[in-house]
């Protein structure tokens, strides 16, 4: 810490009082570093929720990051990378979910019995 810094703090305190200790907001403002502004993002979100790619004349039936990037380019002429399209999807809460691999018809007791009794016989025959 230098003497100049301390002098600036004292001068600011004399001028602004307690308010001189408030921190300024740093960093980019919301949507400042975004390819799309808030209004454009809202339009994009509505399209993804209410329309299928086929309705918008795309050849594929499901939304992908590539199709989202293509939709942005078609509507606004803004070229975004697929990773940016993925960030928009993530901010909209539209992330891929991990499938549940367990069958809802599975019978745990029957499976356990098969693993304990039948499977060892199969291994023995092999």
Layout: helices, strands, pairs:
Elements: H1 3-16, H2 38-50, H3 65-76, H4 82-91, H5 108-125
Question: Explain this structure to me?
Answer:
The protein has 126 residues and is mainly α. The chain has one domain (3-91). The chain has 5 helices and no strands. The chain has helices at residues 3-16, 38-50, 65-76, 82-91, 108-125.
Brief overview:
With 126 residues, the chain is mainly alpha-helical. It has helices spanning 3-16, 38-50, 65-76, 82-91, 108-125.
What structural class do you assign from the helix and strand content? mainly alpha
**Strand tally, please?**
0
- The gross shape turns out to be flat
Please state the CA-atom Rg, rounded to the nearest Å. 29 Å
Mean pLDDT: 88
| Unreliable stretches | none
Keywords:
0% strand, 126 residues, flat, 5 helices, mainly alpha
């Amino acid at each position: 810490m230098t003497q100049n810094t301390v002098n600036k703090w004292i001068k600011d305190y004399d001028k602004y009082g307690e308010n001189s200790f408030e921190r300024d907001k740093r960093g980019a403002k919301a949507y400042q570093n975004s390819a799309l502004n808030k209004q454009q993002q809202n339009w994009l979100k509505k399209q993804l929720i209410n329309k299928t790619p086929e309705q918008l004349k795309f050849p594929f039936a499901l939304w992908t990051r590539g199709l989202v990037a293509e939709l942005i380019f078609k509507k606004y002429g803004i070229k975004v990378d697929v990773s940016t399209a993925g960030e928009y999807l993530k901010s909209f809460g539209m992330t891929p979910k991990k499938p549940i691999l367990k069958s809802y018809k599975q019978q745990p007791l029957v499976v356990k019995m098969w693993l304990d009794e039948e499977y060892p016989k199969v291994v023995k025959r092999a």
